[in-house]
Amino acid sequence: xxxxxxxHNGEQEYKQQRQMSGxxxxxxxxRLSSWKGSDVQDVPPARCQNHQxxxxxxxxxxxSQSHDLSxxxxxxxxxxxxxxxxxxxxxSYYFSENERRIRANDKEFxxxxxxxxxxxxxxxxxxxTFLPFNLLExxxxxxxxxxxxxxxxxxxxxxxxxxxxxxxxxxxxxxTLTAVKDAYDDIQRHLSDSQVNNRKSKxxxxxxxxxxxxxxxxxxxxxxxxxxxxxxxxxxxxxxSEPNGLCFIETAELDGETNLKAKQCLTETIELGEQHxxxxxxxxxxxxxxxxNLLNKFEGTLIxxxxxxxxxxxxxxxxxxxxxxxxxxxxxxVFAGVDTKLMQNSGKTQFKSTGVDRLLNFIIIGIVLxxxxxxxxxxxxxxxxxxxIGQHFQLYLPWDHxxxxxxxxxxxxxxxxxxFFSYAIVLNTVVPISLYxxxxxxxxxxxxxxxxxxxxxxxxxxTYAKARTTTLNEELGQIQYIFSDKTGTLTQNxxxxxxxxxxxxxxxxxxxxxxxxxxxxxxAVPSIDFSGNPHHESDFRWYDRTLLDAVRSDxxxxxxxxRLLALCHTVMAETVDGRLxxxxxxxxxxxLVSAARNFGFVFRTRTxxxxxxxxxGRLEEYELLHILDFNNVRKRMSVILRRxxxxxxYCKGAxxxxxxxxxxxxxxxxxxxxxxxxxxAGEGLRTLVLAERRLTEQYxxxxxxxxxxxxxxxxxxxQRLNAIYEEIESEMQLVGVTAIEDKLQDGVPKxxxxxxxxxxxxxxxxxxxxxxxxxxxxxxxxLTDELADVFIVDGSSVEEVExxxxxxxxxxxxxxxxxxxxxxxxxxxLNSGSQMDPLSVTMTQTSAFMQETSSTPxxxxxxxxxxxxxxxxxWDDKIKDNKxxxxxxxxxxxxxxxxxxxxxxxxxxxxxxxxTGFALVVNGHSLVHCLxxxxxxxxxxxxxxxxxxxxxxxxxxxxxxxxELIKRAKNAVTLAIGDGANDVSMIKAAHxxxxxxxxxxxxxxxxxxxxIAQFRYLERLLLVHGRWSYYRMxxxxxxxxxxxxAFTLCHCWYSLFxxxxxQTVFDPMFISVYNLFYTSLPVLALxxxxxxxxxxxxxxxxxxxxxxxxxxxFNIREFIYSVLHGAFTSLILxxxxxxxxxxxxxxxxxxxxxxxxxxxVVATILIVDNTAQVSLYTSYWTVVxxxxxxxxxxxxxxxxxxxxxxxxxxxxxxxxxxxxDLTFWVTMLITVVVLMAPVLAYKFYLLDVxxxxxDKIRQKSLKKIHSRASSDVRRTPSSxxxxxxxxxxxxxxxxxxxxxxxxxxxxMHKLPQDFAFPLGLGTKKTxxxxxxxxxxxxxxxxxxxxxxxxxxxxxxxQNHSSMADITGGxxxxxxxxxxxxxxxxxTGETVRGSGGSSDLSPRAPCQDLDTINL
Length: 1414
Description:
The protein is α+β, with helices and mostly antiparallel strands.
């Protein structure tokens, strides 16, 4: 857009065209003078239209003539000076940097500013520019430019020992394939642009409505839109077919929301209607903001008929929207083409690359440096050889004419310099140009495998998984952190009105009148019949009859409650097939209005100025004075209504926001309602607080005037309006609370459990309140009872947050004493005659270990139990270090290295279950301080030690900041998943963005890299497709580099026997097509179809995902191994045939020691070896693998025959003669055996001595042994619901809770069997040692609770998980150090304590010890 100077120049040109005579100049001067002297609100129309009143025109003309005569008498100098001053003043007022000026129906005026037209272009090329621009773009890639330089070098005969064809064929092939792909993509963009630009729009021209192309629409045009028609440009709405200037649009193309949104034009322009003459005479002048990408913000002013009118986003229709439920509307084009907000938001997506890509770029640079080093070495060696030996053979090997022959040293140096470039050409295949093409092909096919996966198909919405990018597949196998939204992602986002609190009384619970206990609501409980209400909804369910009785008995507070729900919203009502239906912007609002409807308070219709509801069959109409809408900052919405002489404000919003705005004197009601809020939040329900305020007419009128002044302000309008809203939304009366249930999606707990077992950390970033987020965390098993503790950061200042983080750090240090390799003080303490049972070490509260502890504590007479109940003592010499999850290094940073005894062994190992640990919950206001520079590192230090982190009450920006923090500080691979527009910033910030096609629209999907229909499919996306993609890509790269080094380095060994002359071993044509024709398809099949274990096993054993977290399958070490393997192969490939054929003679007496025979034999053995190696690499054979592997071997012989005998290659007959002799076959057999034997031996050694988890699983699969029971058995039902959470309810319990146990008082006396934590503590060695340790303490261990604790948990559950069958020996050295401290815990096995029984008792829950009185 032109700046202010350009606008000023445009204005001057426009004025110069109008100043055709002296009288006109004076008239213009008078016009500017009148503008200067008049008020801003009294700006006259810019021109006298033909259709204006004749009298008005005559008056204007006569006034202009009189001023012309009076001004003509003044001096010319003064007139010019004054004109210049007024131009500058007018320009500075109207043309600031942040403003844009448009005049309706005035093309001449608008043209001077050179605004963009409505033509859009997203394509990159034209027919003429495609070839040069595409080639220029491709050669900006380093690999392509490198091979172009090599091609140029090969054109120089003095340094090239290969024909240019060897480089030209693969380079042209790569460039052609890429160009075809780019051309196809650009053709699609051209077609899309053409389709959009050629859409028809009805435009007003010269008073007539004509059909014009979208590309012909100009800024300032008045256009007409019909129902279901796309908006051609960003327009200011001026008139509609609906009453009061209302219209409805769908913004799915902008933000993915399919709900209808209401727009309303100015009441002053409604009168224009469909009158084309009146619309053409409309000459309003619009002063507005410059083009920007803010979809929900617009500020401007309309100057029309000497008045100024405020313009906001509610009066703007954006390009890409669709007009719905409105017959027609008219608008003035404000932004067109690339200036529209849709195009402003369609910028380039942030480029994302995988870790493999970054490593590959680093490796390629290393290969180039290696190539330069090798070439330099051979150049020096060639110069030395020529100086010592070569000079004496010039008769047979003459030096080139450009070589100085007089001075041997100079000649040898020049030859060495030329040989440097020659070897750069010969060895260029060490940098494989086909690598990039192969990688893209593999990723492309893998994306289709994701799209075609029937296991990720959601039949309810007919939605498949969709890979929206083809460049990030293997990154799915390396995810370390998952950042997830809660609503709509973990939950269904299908809201149901579940409970409520009205005037301090709760409704929604069903009570058994006989016992007084709550009845669990299930399908067997009958719901209330609402059929007496003609507007009821058949799918609405409510079970508490007392609320319906209160409504029918005209109870005042319930009527106020439901009247507020029926009036305070932005829902649109419409009648479809005779039935009332609602269109809501969010499922929450729809659920609340639906609840009011079923209870007899039916929202019927709305206009911009009124709302009509039906209360118990009687119509009530309210005048709608204002809507103070909801946003993420306000977290509330209000409506101001008038009925009769009463003015009332209804408000609903977040509890903390509404409570701060209630008037005093209702503390008792607030306290009772707060209890209900806590109860609802504890049940995982979404709560809103309702309030009202009665306004006097005088107060409202005074407030309305100040609100209008703020709405017209050009500076800080939004801030001023917020202050005005704050004023009226105060001193409110509490009405009640709504509680809406948002149920979990299917399979979420199992998916989260598996992802955590895979070593992935999961963070939930949600806008919900703390209690709701925590209880949802327990429900979906993100938080479990095995956790040592849940830290909550809720400080409101930097000091408070810092103090809490410091306390949590101390907690982790104390936990250090009871983890593997803990300090010896703990053992000494246990063996010093303590009163404590050494295997019942527990702490009651988190606060118990907030106090400072000395480094060498002295045991008091009765030692307070430490805080952690998550340890298992083992005295097993076979225990190995923890090699499990990716965060073991992080833990070591905090806990330090384990202390060992003098003999180097740990005298006693304390094995900590991997499911134990900590969780962190952070509030949004505390997160602001946590992300500050002074606390960022401390927060990250604590969070990185936690298995799960929940951030609640966070804004979309905070979500992105958290993701960026982990990316930057931890250098970890992150994935963000969400379903709404508020998740877009997080999705774009993460390495991988996953969108869920949910109830909140498709904005997240449109911004994502992968789209799925349900959260549970993320488990398969990562553990199956992600792991497979990473595994395949790594295997492909290892084999690719191996075969290329094995091929290329043969020239190096041959150089030792050819005087370093850059002579090649192979036929130049073989060099050209080696990667393209002979070895490309087998390695592509390997990269596309390879898998080590099946998808079922990948899900059953999530630990298989761990190698990707550590980048174990392809890294610098694996690359060096591939290079060394290739170098060894090339050495054997060359030396054995060379030794055989050097002085060889065939049976017929023919000499075999010629260069071409040697080259043909080595090439053939190379192809055979490649075939054998890729066969050994392949674990999963398909028809494609068989065809490509064996077909490539056959293809080599066919192509070699065709090239040499049909085309007439120089090596004609070499291979044919060689294979006729037995020497060739024996040589090939010996060479292949020598090459394959070490590889086979090493693989068998690893399989037998150091098998991986996948090796063990394959072995078990071959034996057809079921390895593990259902993963549901591994995780026990959460018993935290009634204990660790301070709330009493729980929304997502799938089994009976503990309410009866609590009310019966049984839990106060003993720990029931159901409460036993399934942690098998120790082995038989542990039990024996425990008995020895505690033998002398039996008499003193007389705590009654301990006896109960032991005696009531003596049974043993022998339900072993199948993971034990597989990992039994990991399985002795695996992540858990054996099943004694790991998976045995999951079997539910318990062992008795020292109270005279042979088994040890399980530990108690961390916070249950107050109840059990340990």
